[in-house]
């Protein structure tokens, strides 16, 4: 810390209790000055030789025959006045970052200018500020903190503005030119780690990260912090990542961890002001800088402390642009009354819809303008689809989650964002486990969200044995599992027996097979009165071919055994759901598929 010593005489000030200060001297004191609650017994001559204001006050007191001079509104209080008085006596006084602002304001109040005496206190302080304080990183911050106790004097004397400009200018310097000490207790950012990977050990020690300045300014009060950050942003040399790191560090430093502390009446106003300030300081470019995780945490706090709608709206727009970066934990926003669910589903649904709208708008802009550097793309849409499926699985455990809310959130993601439906299947299965009171119609509506053609082999095997699923869904799963096996074997046969085919012919054949399978699946829904007849056809065809069923895994064969057993033994009592949604694979796939389907008549005995 920088300091300046003034004067050479020994300190002769003495205290008599807490409220009396006097100077030990052979000469009797001839003036009494009251500063706040402290009385100073001093001598007129040294004071009047340095202070123009004291001259006027002493003269006025003499005219009024008053023995004391009262200075109730003295800036800096008794301590600042004592510094000025010691300077007038020529006694040793030390200026530093903690007392220089108060001394400066006191000197201005006492009018200790060059017109009164050459080399007066105001001049000395100005030299110290310019030569030492404003050149020091940490001293500038300390001085800025002390300015609050002497407002509005420090503001009118431009000390606050000069401190802010000094701090902002230093943050904008090239990190390689930083030679002063700073506080850094966080982990290095990815970019700083990458930059240091190729350095030698000694070089790594002295390397300075880009956000070296972040922690030191966290000690500032919120109003001063806002002004410093505004000045830093106005310089235009700081990227959004560093700005967001600074805001995140400040939020961690001052926002309480517990929900009760955030909601308490004692600090509610302060917490609300803090969140609103951080939101307004976020980088103007919403697509870069702050992580989605930090923005969502900020949104949770904003909801708890009740910030203005404009601040929440700004956060929602920023989160919508970076939703693909979020995790399920980030999206678990606690619900507030009158909501009955554990988490705020409507808020997440709103974010997803905003994201999809932004994605569509940016796609249009990309096509019209030929832009290639847009934030959102197909990869991010896939990430959002996976994220929402995982989120659905998490919230499906909530007994108060309505089926309509589950369906709305599921349908907010477009089909092409879900190339695989394993995640959606897990969410549906979890919902079925936790909501046993669902009717058949509701279960059917819920399962209609899922496309069994997009399930992987593992998910299909699990679904084929899942008694919570409607019968129609199980039949579809088993059928596509069989079709997949048939297609795999057929592909191996084609590869071994048609080596002379060109790549173009192979692609054409595969396309025709896919079209055929699609046509076959479009006829999976059959009428109830045809169900028994198709089961009989399956029995007859099974005598001619036994090979097709071997293409299915053993677990699926057992399910088919139960299924066709159900059709045989309970034809008269089968439900309308079974008759409307189940269909024998023999009625859809000719040739090899027919034989494989018909051989599985004894596979399922009961479906729940």
From TrEMBL:
InterPro entries given in the database record: BTB/POZ_dom, NPH3/RPT2-like, NPH3_dom, SKP1/BTB/POZ_sf
Keyword flag Oxidoreductase: no
All copies of domain NPH3, residue ranges: 211-484
Biased composition (Low complexity): 576-587
Boundaries of every BTB domain copy: 29-97
Pathway: Protein modification; protein ubiquitination
Biological processes per GO annotation: protein ubiquitination
Keywords from the UniProt entry: Ubl conjugation pathway
Residue segments, region Disordered: 491-515, 565-608
Sequence similarity: Belongs to the NPH3 family.
The protein's name in its UniProt record: NPH3 domain-containing protein
Organism this protein belongs to: Gossypium darwinii
């Amino acid at each position: 810390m920088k300091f300046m010593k003034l004067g050479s005489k020994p300190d002769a000030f003495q205290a008599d209790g807490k409220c009396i200060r006097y100077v030990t001297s052979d000469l009797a004191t001839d003036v009494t000055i009251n500063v706040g609650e402290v009385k100073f017994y001093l001598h007129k001559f040294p004071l009047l030789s340095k202070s123009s204001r004291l001259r006027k006050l002493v003269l006025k007191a003499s005219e009024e025959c008053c023995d004391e001079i009262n200075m109730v509104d003295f800036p800096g209080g008794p301590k600042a006045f004592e510094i000025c008085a010691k300077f007038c006596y020529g006694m040793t006084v030390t200026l530093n970052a903690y007392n220089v602002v108060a001394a400066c304001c006191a000197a201005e109040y006492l009018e200790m200018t060059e017109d009164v005496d050459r080399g007066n206190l105001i001049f000395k302080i100005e030299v110290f500020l310019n030569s030492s304080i404003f050149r020091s990183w940490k001293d500038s911050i300390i001085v800025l903190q002390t300015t609050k106790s002497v407002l509005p004097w420090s503001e009118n004397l431009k000390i606050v503005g000069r401190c802010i400009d000094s701090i902002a200018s230093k943050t904008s310097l090239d990190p390689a030119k930083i030679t002063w000490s700073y506080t850094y207790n966080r982990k290095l950012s990815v970019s700083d780690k990458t930059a240091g990977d190729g350095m030698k050990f000694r070089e790594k020690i002295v390397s300075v990260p880009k956000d070296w300045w972040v922690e030191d300014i966290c000690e500032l009060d919120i109003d001063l912090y806002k002004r410093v950050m505004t000045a830093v942003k106005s310089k235009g040399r700081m990227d959004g990542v560093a700005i967001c790191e600074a805001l995140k560090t400040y939020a961690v430093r001052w926002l309480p961890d517990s929900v009760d502390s955030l909601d308490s009446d004692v600090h509610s106003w302060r917490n609300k002001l803090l969140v609103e300030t951080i939101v307004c300081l976020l980088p103007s470019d919403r697509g870069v800088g702050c992580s989605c995780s930090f923005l969502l945490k900020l949104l949770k706090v904003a909801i708890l402390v009740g910030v203005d709608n404009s601040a929440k709206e700004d956060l929602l727009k920023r989160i919508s642009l970076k939703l693909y970066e979020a995790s399920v934990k980030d999206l678990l926003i606690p619900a507030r009354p009158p909501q009955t669910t554990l988490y705020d589903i409507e808020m997440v649904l709103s974010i997803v819809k905003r994201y999809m709208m932004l994605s569509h708008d940016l796609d249009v802009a990309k096509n019209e303008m030929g832009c290639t550097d847009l934030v959102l793309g197909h990869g991010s849409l896939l990430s959002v689809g996976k994220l929402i499926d995982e989120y659905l699985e998490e919230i499906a455990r909530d007994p108060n989650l309505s089926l309509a809310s589950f369906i709305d959130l599921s349908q907010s993601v477009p089909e092409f964002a879900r190339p695989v439906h394993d995640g959606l299947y897990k969410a549906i299965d979890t919902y079925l486990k936790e909501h046993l009171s669902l009717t058949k119609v509701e279960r059917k509506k819920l399962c209609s969200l899922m496309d069994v053609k997009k399930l992987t082999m593992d998910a299909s095997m699990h679904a084929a044995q899942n008694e919570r699923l409607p019968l129609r869904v199980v039949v579809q799963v088993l059928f596509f599992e069989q079709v997949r096996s048939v297609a795999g074997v057929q592909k191996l046969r084609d590869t071994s027996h048609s080596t002379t085919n060109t790549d173009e012919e192979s692609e054409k054949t595969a396309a025709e097979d896919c079209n055929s399978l699609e046509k076959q699946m479009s006829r999976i829904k059959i009428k109830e009165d045809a169900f028994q007849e198709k089961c009989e056809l399956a029995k007859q065809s099974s005598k001619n071919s036994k090979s097709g069923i071997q293409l299915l895994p053993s677990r699926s064969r057992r399910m088919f055994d139960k299924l066709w057993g159900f059709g045989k033994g309970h034809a008269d009592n089968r439900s309308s759901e079974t008759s409307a949604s189940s269909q024998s694979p023999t009625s859809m796939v000719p040739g090899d598929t027919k034989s494989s389907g018909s051989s599985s008549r004894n596979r399922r005995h009961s479906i729940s």
